[in-house]
Structure formats: C-alpha cells, structure tokens
Design goal:
The protein is mainly alpha-helical. The protein is elongated. The relative contact order is 0.05. The chain contains 14 helices and 4 strands. A 4-stranded parallel beta sheet has the order 1-2-3-4, covered by helices on one side. 52% of the residues lie in helices and 5% in strands. Residues 211-231 and 317-321 have low confidence and may be disordered.
Length: 321
C-alpha cells in the first residue's frame, strides 16, 4: 500500500463498503480483490474481506501478484479465507516460479470457486495460468466434470487465433493440445502406445482435439525417428510396409537428417518416395525435391555408413552369443 496507492486500511475498507453498497443497490454483481495477498498482513486481509462480505459482495479475490506463493501456502490462505467469508473466492496467480497451474489446482481443492486464466498463459511478466494447462490438470482428476462444462475441441483453434492476433509463437512444449503433446521418442514408449496409448498418455488425443493432420508433426518432432515411428507414419499415410521396409525407410530418414535439416513436412515426403520406389530397379522418385548433387552424394555415403554400422552391430551380437 505504501508504494502503490498510499491509502491506509481504514480508508480502503470504508471506500470499498461505499462502492459495494452503491453497486448492489443498482442490482449489479460486484467483486472485491486485494493485491499482493501473500505478502500482506493476514489480520488486515481478513478484516477487509470480512467487512466487504458483510455488505453483500459477490466475490472476493486473492492475488499472488509477484508469484511468491507455494501450493501449500495457497491452500492455507484459501482455507482460512473460506472460514471467514461466505461469498465466492477468486484466485489470481502468476507463473514467474512455474507454480501457476499447481497453485490454481490447490486453490480450487481448498475452497476457491474461481481461478483466473488466459489463453496461452499470456500476462504480465511470465504470465498467468494458461487456460489449456488448468483444463488439462482438471481433466486428469475429474474427466466427466470437465467435459460436461468445457468444449475442449475448440481449444486448439482458440490458441491459434490468439497467437496470430498477438503475434506470438505457440511454444513447442505447450500443454495439450500442444505441438509435442503426444510425441514419443523412447523406444519402449513408442512400442507401448501402439497397443494401448493410455500406457504413456494421461489425456487421449480425441478428448483434447489433438487430431493428427500431418503424421510427421505428431510423431517425429523430437528428433530422428525410431522404427515404431515409421510404422505409425506409414500406417497413417495409408502405406502398407513390411518390417524390412520400415527399417529401410527409417534408415533413409536418418541418413537424410545427416545431410540437411528436415522440416516436419519432409518426413512425409521421404516416406512416400521410399514407398513409391519399392519394387523398382532404381529410385525413380527422388527422396526430396531440389536436392543438390553434393547432397545426393552425401546421402549415398551416409546410407552406406548406416548399413555398415548395422552389419557390425549384428556381428557383435553374434559374437557375444
């Protein structure tokens, strides 16, 4: 108070009561919130909240303005406040220390009725809880409740709209339905999700509207592919390949990744060209368009290196046996 508005507690309480009584007399809803609640004197906070609750305020708010609160501190304050007021409680958190979503969940579990969010978490400094993040966290706890209140199929379009409007990029690790939300690179993970996706995915793609329009965008963002990735990609592209074909395709992609940096769309192109060349005497379809002579030579060398490495690995296994 000293360095912002400069008003004392008595003035704040008196003015708040006057404004609330006036607004309520007009038949309108009104919300009263404090600033920097977690560094404020608790007795002063509860005194003001009790006063405004007594004159009919519809909702009181607490704010972690500078992001100092931990989840346990959030729980303690919200539970204490719930014992003082009967109106709704709203909570506003920042994400400077990465606790915004955790603090939001703890507030709701402790008696808060509202938490503030924004699309993509956009806000002052490091932002506030993201709408998608809070919904994802709630979804894993009470799926039926969340789906009964929110249309998650609109979430991706909403994120895209806001990102375009404010000219920011959506982070690669954005929460469901984010760019890498369903990317699996560990072999054991990729193998398991082929059988049962829930093995390593707490939120299913259909619920989060994370539809796969480009297979490479869904499964190959995190680096070079595994054989399981190529199996997934080929199937989603409608291409039926044997195990040996899948291994060969994977080798082709890995070799090409050593030649040039691959865009996500390039992966689909390589798989299609590999499939189209199956059974032919020569590679009639180029791996990628506009490859230079130097790139073609380097690709051929990388493929030979890969074959040599694979042969030696198999020899090593036979020796060990």
């Amino acid at each position: 108070m000293q360095h912002s508005h400069g008003k004392d507690l008595a003035y704040i309480t008196r003015t708040a009561i006057e404004v609330i009584q006036f607004v309520k007399a007009q038949g309108k809803e009104i919300h009263f919130s404090s600033e920097d609640s977690f560094r404020s004197n608790l007795v002063d906070l509860l005194s003001v909240y009790s006063a405004v609750d007594g004159v009919g305020v519809d909702r009181v708010g607490i704010a972690d303005t500078v992001c100092v609160a931990t989840p346990s501190e959030v729980s303690e304050l919200v539970r204490t406040l719930r014992g003082v007021v009967g109106c709704d409680i709203e909570c506003y958190f920042h994400n400077d220390t990465g606790c915004a979503i955790a603090n939001s969940l703890m507030a709701l579990e402790s008696g808060a009725t509202h938490v503030d969010t924004s699309v993509l978490g956009i806000g002052e400094r490091n932002g506030i809880p993201s709408l998608g993040g809070v919904l994802a966290r709630m979804l894993t706890i009470d799926r039926d409740y969340v789906l009964s209140k929110y249309n998650l199929t609109k979430l991706k379009a909403l994120k895209d709209l806001v990102a375009t409007a404010v000219e920011v990029n959506i982070p690669f690790n954005d929460i469901v339905p984010g760019y890498c939300a369903f990317t699996h690179k560990a072999g054991i993970h990729a193998k398991a999700i082929l059988a049962i996706p829930a093995t390593y995915e707490a939120i299913d793609r259909e619920t989060s509207a994370c539809s796969v329009t480009s297979t490479s965008q869904a499964d190959l963002r995190a680096g070079t592919p595994s054989n399981q990735d190529s199996f997934l990609l080929g199937g989603q592209l409608g291409l039926i390949m044997t195990d040996s074909h899948i291994k060969g395709c994977t080798a082709k992609i890995k070799a090409m990744a050593d030649v040039r940096k691959l865009a996500v769309e390039d992966i689909d192109t390589i798989i299609r060209s590999f499939f189209d060349n199956l059974g032919g005497p020569n590679e009639e379809h180029p791996v990628l368009e506009n490859m230079t002579t130097q790139e073609k030579k380097l690709l051929a060398r990388k493929e030979m290196d890969f074959v040599w490495t694979q042969k030696n690995c198999r020899r090593g296994k036979s020796y060990n046996n």
